Automatic annotation (TrEMBL):
Stretches of the chain forming a coiled coil according to its record: none
Gene3D superfamilies: NAD(P)-binding Rossmann-like Domain (3.40.50.720)
Protein name: SDR family oxidoreductase
Domain of life: Bacteria
Source organism: Planococcus glaciei
Protein's GO biological process: bile acid metabolic process
Gene Ontology MF, one: oxidoreductase activity, acting on CH-OH group of donors
Alphabetical list of Pfam families matching this protein: adh_short_C2
Similarity-based family: Belongs to the short-chain dehydrogenases/reductases (SDR) family.
UniProt keyword list: Oxidoreductase
Residue intervals of the Ketoreductase domain: 23-202
Tagged with keyword Glycosyltransferase: no
Length: 269
């Protein structure tokens, strides 16, 4: 997929209001795409950021450097978040680095298209669910003892959890599990003052899309995002205000909900 289609903006023109001042946020998959854009916005809003990532040291270094250029503070820890022990390490790393956790953004993702369901291997199914669904629950489990009233959990799912996808069956299923667990966690935590919500993006230009479809038919590249009413995919920075809204501790009565940022593809919720 053409690299020029992905706007890896550092949100230089983002207008912050300081709503996350004094907060500490863990963001998984925070060194690229949506997670990186959210990390930039959170830093501009005053939060200290801890990034969990798998690889790409160059992108991680750029992310940390950009946040520091805003006068923010950020640290990063690499590892496979599909494994519970790494999720435990990330939570402890955040506590050791900044002493608290106020916001947990479960954003890391993995997808691999298969046009024929019989070609979906055991390994692919496990990896997809580990990164999307298992990691979310592992991190919530590890972070929960340290979350106080006003804390926020935000989960990045997908439009595919609601409408399905013929070539991303396991991915749609893993996101569906994430939606269900988000609602269940919200019901469990609401009386403790902890809100659990999510974002279900439609097509968004990210490096994950490049890795996913880059080896397939070029027609898939040209057609990406053209099927939604907006007629185009989003750029990561177009989603960040929703993540800031859900992270704001003053947003105290919204929980168990998903914001559908998908260019007009209306979902039944």
């Amino acid at each position: 997929m053409a690299e020029g289609n992905f706007d890896n903006t550092d949100l230089k023109d983002y207008k912050a209001s300081g709503v996350l001042q004094g907060k500490v946020a863990i963001i998984t998959g925070g060194n690229s795409g949506i997670g990186q854009a959210v990390a930039y916005a959170y830093a501009k809003e005053g939060a200290k950021v801890v990034i969990g990532y798998l690889d790409d040291e160059e992108a991680t270094a750029k992310t940390l450097e950009t946040i520091e250029s805003y006068g923010g503070e950020a640290k990063a820890l690499s590892g496979d978040l599909g494994k519970s022990e790494q999720c435990d390490k990330l939570v402890q790393f955040a506590l050791d680095s900044f002493g608290q956790i106020d916001i947990l953004v479960n954003n890391a993702g993995y997808q691999y298209p298969q046009s024929n369901p019989v070609d979906i291997t055991d390994e692919q199914i496990l990896k997809t669910f580990e990164i999307k669904a298992f990691a979310m629950l592992y991190l919530v489990r590890a972070a929960r003892p340290h979350l106080k009233k006003g804390a926020r959990i935000i989960n990045t799912a997908s439009i595919n959890a609601y409408r399905g996808h013929s070539d991303l069956i396991d991915y749609a299923g893993a996101n569906g599990a994430m939606v269900s667990m988000t609602r269940s966690l919200a019901r469990r935590f609401v009386r403790e003052g902890i809100a659990v919500n999510g974002i279900a993006p439609g097509p968004v230009w990210t490096p994950l899309i490049t890795k996913t479809f880059g080896h397939l038919d070029p027609a898939l590249e040209e057609g990406f995002g053209k099927d939604v009413p907006a007629g185009r995919p989003a750029q990561p920075y177009e989603l960040v205000k929703a993540y800031v809204f859900l992270a704001d501790s003053q947003n105290s009565y919204m929980t168990g909900q998903f914001l559908h940022m998908n260019g007009g593809d209306f979902m039944s919720t």
